[in-house]
Fold:
Amino acid sequence: MRALRLPGWGLPPVLTDVEQPAPRELEVLLRVEAAGLCHSDLHVLDAGPGDMPFPAPFTLGHEVAGRVAAVGSAVTGITVGERYVVYGPWGCGECRRCVAGRENYCDRRAELPWAGMGLGRDGGMADYVLVPAARHLQPIGELDPVQAAPLSDAGLTPYHAIQRCRASLDDESTVAVIGVGGLGHLAIQILRALTPSRVFAVDVREEALAVADRCGAHLSTRLSPDTGRILRAASGGSGVDVVLDFAGSQSTVDLAAAGLRAGGDLVIVGNGGGHLTVRKPGPLPPGGRISLPFWGTLPELAEVIALGRSGALHVEVERFPLSAAHEALARLRAGELRGRAVLTPG
Ligand code: FEH
Ligand code: ZN
Ligand code: ZN
Structure:
């Protein structure tokens, strides 16, 4: 089978032929129909030896959907030929967090030689992917796998971030979404579907702001030195109640802190490396809370897929055959993609 592999840290990815795995005991083999690209794939490709807490080589791809091709001898409840999306943050499977379906916060994460599917373990930018356990599969029914795959990361990550502050969002609340890419455009849709809050979108690209408008943002504004003032004015002078920063760069973290309302939530999702001094008094308002959410939980993936199947979420997708994976990565790196790039091996 074909697979896009990271052959070693600091080396370019290669599309190569590898042996097709056979599922044993509790494993499930999925024929991949869609594998999304993520900025984290670029972080992995740019990492040098020791930068990531897991070894190379491995096959990339942590945002995957497809049909079950075969099951191991001990698998129950999974139907060959049925379509599923894969929950990607595979944990140890035994600690209290994993047993509760919160494998994204596995208590033994530091001991594991992987961070998840396509992150130290072979992922789904390939013709087939081996899934370690049936619990990692969520049925998608009639949902297009090209829509479902991005929901397992670009959808699940903002959903999880929003769930953590959703209780405070009422019809007088305001939420700023900074970065309207693969995750940001779905964050806007999730906020509009699940909360009465007003949503303000910020990005550097005009075409991304047009996507934000299509996704239901009440205001979309281009990132500039004036953005903090614009957000504060749009929120009636108090500042915004929640900032979801999908870039996590120094400029966006600084903007987020400056535009946050007293008692507000600053949620840093992007891995852009921006940092903030947390001190009293300091750049954050009184009562300000910071969270650094990572991916999402198994139950939340089922909720996101249900939202997708209800028609409440539409993923802006650019499709590429697996053979064009390098072109897709180059377009992602150049910031030229509209929405999410999805490889379709079939
Ligand atoms: C994956 C690996 C490491 C950091 C962040 C991520 C996200 O793309 C997962 O949603
Ligand atoms: Zn990702
Ligand atoms: Zn665990």
